Amino acid sequence: MKKIAVFTSGGDSPGMNACIRAVVRTAIYRGLDVYGIYRGYEGMIEGDIKKLQSHSVSNIVQRGGTMLKSARSAEFRTPEGRKKAYDNLVANGIEGLVAIGGDGTFTGAKLFFEEYGIPTVGCPGTIDNDIFGTDYTIGFDTAVNTALEAIDKIRDTAAAHDRVFFVEVMGRDAGFIAVESGIGGGAEFVMVPENKSNLDEIVKSFKNLRKSKSSSIIVVAEGEEEGSAETVMKKVKELVKDKDREFKVTTLGHIQRGGNPTARDRVLASRCGMAAVEGLIAGKQNCMAGVMNQEVVYTSFADCIGKTKPLIPDHLKLIEILSI
């Protein structure tokens, strides 16, 4: 293998640039030519591919987003689109790929490998931390700290005015951000997609807390079964029937995706980027490079996509115990 390419796809996450930097410099260190594919699979189809040097990735390790840009590609979902992408890789002599992204990225890479056999090793780039085969994903720690900083500031206002705040964080299918920011932010309740929430129980507990606490924070993952934080707030408010209490909603939204990555995310991204290149050289293919128990592991795309990563039970227990 003499030429490889790296691309980012799907939603951006803090640390992607650190991962790109590690891929580029590891490849050069190992004597490979390395190319950047801009705008993910869409750029692969359109031939937006450029050779990268060591200086191409200078001064990016601290930046959020992705220097290679990202895009979602409807055309890549078609056989014709994937054929165009393959032809462009062949035209550039590219023999292996590093794909930085999440489930959608890996699903595309798996199908592409099955059709054309170009070896691909992925790096887990998503703030949701929902990919099986790694303890943490690139960008998760930064997203949690962004949410935590917001919750800390909201609590000041909640305490000053004796208010109840419902804070919505990202997590359409997974509640990892909600759980960790909830623990760190001292939330009284955390609502996540993985667990069915009983509003009656929440209201009952809330009324008990009312005797000892003048304000409360309830963290709601955007994929919560009961609805958005706004919807949950209205339901709880109606059940509580406390006309003297103010209920407020804050939706954090896309601020969780941006910002300078934390040290933890930069190190994780760099390890995964290096491992992806080393994996390609060693003959790894159709898999993801992750870190579990401090060790680099390679997990097939089929498992990354097909297996559910559960929340940590002790974290859920912590929320219940520490909220009293």
Give structural notes:
- The chain is 42% helix and 19% strand.
- The protein has helices spanning 16-29, 40-46, 79-91, 103-116, 140-161, 176-184, 199-209, 229-240, 263-281, 301-306, 313-322; strands at residues 3-8, 33-37, 49-52, 96-101, 120-124, 163-169, 189-191, 216-221, 246-251, 287-292, 295-300.
- A seven-stranded mixed β-sheet has the order 3-2-1-4-5-10-11, sandwiched between helices. Strands 7-8-6-9 form a four-stranded parallel β-sheet, sandwiched between helices.
- It has two domains: 3-139 and 261-306, Rossmann fold, CATH 3.40.50.450; 143-256, Phosphofructokinase domain (Rossmann fold), CATH 3.40.50.
- The chain is built from eleven helices and eleven strands.
- The mean pLDDT is 92.
- It is elongated and about 70 Å long.
- By secondary structure, it is α/β, with parallel strands linked by helices.
Describe the secondary-structure layout.
Blueprint lengths: L2 E6 L7 H14 L3 E5 L2 H7 L2 E4 L26 H13 L4 E6 L1 H14 L3 E5 L15 H22 L1 E7 L6 H9 L4 E3 L7 H11 L6 E6 L7 H12 L5 E6 L11 H19 L5 E6 L2 E6 H6 L6 H10 L2
Parallel strand pairs: 1-2, 1-4, 4-5, 5-10, 6-8, 6-9, 7-8
Antiparallel strand pairs: 2-3, 10-11
Helix pairs in contact: 1-9, 2-3, 5-6, 6-11, 7-8
Question: What does this entry show, briefly?
Answer:
The protein has eleven helices and eleven strands. It is of the alpha/beta class and 324 residues long. α5 packs across α6.
Number of domains: 2
Measured distance between first and last alpha carbons: 58 Å
Shape: elongated
Strand order of the largest sheet: 3-2-1-4-5-10-11
User: For the record, what CATH class of the largest domain applies?
Assistant: Alpha Beta
